[in-house]
Write the structure tokens for this entry.
Amino acid sequence: MESRKVIITWIAATVAVMFALPFAVARLASECSGMALCIILFFIVNPIYSAILGFRCGRNIRQMWNLPLVSSAAFLAGTWLFFDIKEVWFVIYASAYLIIGWTAMGIGKYLNSKHIEKN
């Protein structure tokens, strides 16, 4: 039951970061420096979130392996919907976020297994 709450919490965070933030950036882009906001979102916020999510998923890969995939899909849906363009580069960004997430998941699993072996 506890793992369900954790998964639901991470899905809610994923929707907020990967789906709602592109909406906010798309709305603010017309009012202020939209390109700077896009760069911050695509090159700083989303990769860091993907790494944190993946690292956390490394604790319980069996039940959480798909969250980096959900995160990438939410990013792609959000950008295609709110930026109103079906740019192919968004697929590349989503793939990069997926790779970052799964790599961090592997690192998290490795470090977690080393920690368990020590105790």
